[in-house]
């Protein structure tokens, strides 16, 4: 059998984005210039072109998220998996902090005491940080609902929400509610999403900033 | 606005699987009894019913993987993200070890020297473990191709392959080749997959064993 040509990761990535661009064009999909880089990276991560139609951005969302990252906002994820997927080199170069409170002992205890999820409680810990927070939710609709209630009750307001939890129960409703707030967002309508998607959006934002700085 | 009823994670999961079962039935899809639990968990993780048609099992794959896990096989993932997604409580209860070599300094150095990917080199480190290895590949087709070459050249044979890399370049080809070997597998045909899918398959296997043991 023929040997498959050896490609370096950068080459694989370049060709992948060429294929994605070509197939978006075949489908007659034109992405907004500021959103294109992010939506394409999500498709690259999922091989799922549905995201081209469901990934939804509030007005000037990308510009807002980039400014927040440059001004020292912290990314807080709802899973250690999403945190593991964010490029540590890019974070370091941009001096951006990324955290996840899911493994925190306090979170487990409070969740048990209150009969709620650890993800919901972890958003409360995010609210106590003394800097603007970009909440990146790739798994738990309960985290998104906890944020929604904090915003509605005036207890806290995250600076930005990446809302891409995945699933069948409360997921679509949680996303719809978050889109009714005045918090800027990137949200995937519908059931789909995931920790890899949350991480891909964070990485696309970070890579965009690095590209601007280096290019 | 109405308050969304508060649900505990177990309740959300139970309802999610009910919805998945109902929608599979609507689609006229009947899963093999031994594969059902695993395919449903992958759909639960992705909200993507495509997996019901593309997730492919070698003969007696689930039985084989379960036996390997009980007999002390080690799971090796191709990303720290997949490793982060495997349930640590379930691993501990079953005394199963899970590892990832991607952050290993040797891996980075060898990949640079040889002009290949870290994922490919990390499979070589897996081959040096002194126990049977279940390779769980959720990201890098190059890891799957590295395994294929080791098998073909008789250098090493993983005990089992979970082959669900995602992407546009070499991914489908790498999966097809792996399915031609005699190594037992769970592979997702086509472009789709990901670290969350690799972790979901590992977790489904672990949960199945725990369920059998506990009752």
Give a summary of the structure in a few sentences.
Chain A is of the alpha/beta class and 215 residues long. Chain A has eleven helices and six strands.
Residues in helix, % of chain A: 55-70%
Structural class of chain A: alpha/beta
Describe the biggest sheet of chain A?
6 strands, mixed
Determine the most extensive contact between two protein chains. Answer: A-B, 45 and 45 residues
Segments of chain A where pLDDT lies below 50 for 5+ residues? none
Q: How many helical stretches of chain A?
A: 11
Oligomerization status of the protein chains = homodimer
Number of strands of chain A: 6
Give a quick set of tags describing it.
6 strands; alpha/beta; 215 residues; 11 helices; 56% helix; 6-stranded mixed β-sheet; homodimer
What would your notes on this structure say?
With 215 residues, chain A is an alpha/beta fold. Chain A is built from eleven helices and six strands. A six-stranded mixed beta sheet of chain A has the order 1-6-5-4-2-3, with helices on both faces. In chain A, strand 4 (133-137), helix 9 and strand 5 (160-163) form a beta-alpha-beta unit. In chain A, helix 6 (88-94) crosses helix 11 and helix 9 runs parallel beside helix 10 (171-180). Chain A is globular. Chains A and B meet through helix 1, helix 2, helix 5, helix 9 and helix 10 of A and helix 1, helix 2, helix 5, helix 9 and helix 10 of B.
SSE arrangement:
Two copies of one chain form a homodimer.
Chain A (H helix, E strand, L loop, with lengths): L8 H18 L6 H14 L4 H4 E3 L3 H10 L3 E4 L2 H6 L2 H7 L3 E3 L4 H10 L3 H10 L5 E5 L3 H12 L7 E4 L7 H10 L4 E4 L6 H20 L1
Parallel strand pairs in A: 2-3, 2-4, 4-5, 5-6
Antiparallel strand pairs in A: 1-6
Helix pairs in contact in A: 1-2, 2-11, 4-11, 6-11, 7-8, 8-9, 9-10
């Amino acid at each position: 059998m023929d040997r498959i040509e050896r490609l370096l990761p950068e080459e694989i990535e370049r060709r992948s984005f060429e294929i994605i661009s070509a197939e978006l064009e075949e489908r007659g999909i034109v992405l907004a210039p500021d959103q294109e880089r992010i939506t394409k990276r999500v498709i690259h991560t999922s091989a799922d072109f549905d995201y081209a139609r469901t990934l939804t951005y509030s007005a000037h969302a990308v510009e807002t998220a980039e400014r927040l990252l440059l001004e020292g906002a912290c990314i807080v994820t709802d899973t250690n998996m999403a945190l593991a997927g964010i490029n540590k080199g890019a974070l370091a170069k941009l001096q951006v902090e990324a955290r996840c409170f899911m493994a925190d002992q306090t979170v487990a205890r409070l969740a048990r005491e209150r009969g709620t999820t650890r993800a919901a409680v972890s958003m409360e810990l995010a609210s106590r940080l003394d800097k603007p927070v970009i909440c990146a939710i790739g798994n738990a609709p309960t985290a998104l609902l906890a944020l929604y209630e904090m915003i509605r009750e005036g207890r806290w307001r995250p600076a930005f929400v990446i809302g891409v939890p995945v699933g069948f129960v409360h997921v679509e409703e949680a996303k719809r509610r978050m889109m009714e707030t005045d918090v800027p967002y990137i949200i995937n309508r519908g059931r789909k999403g995931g920790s890899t998607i949350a991480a891909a959006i964070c990485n696309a934002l970070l890579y965009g900033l690095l590209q601007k700085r280096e290019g």
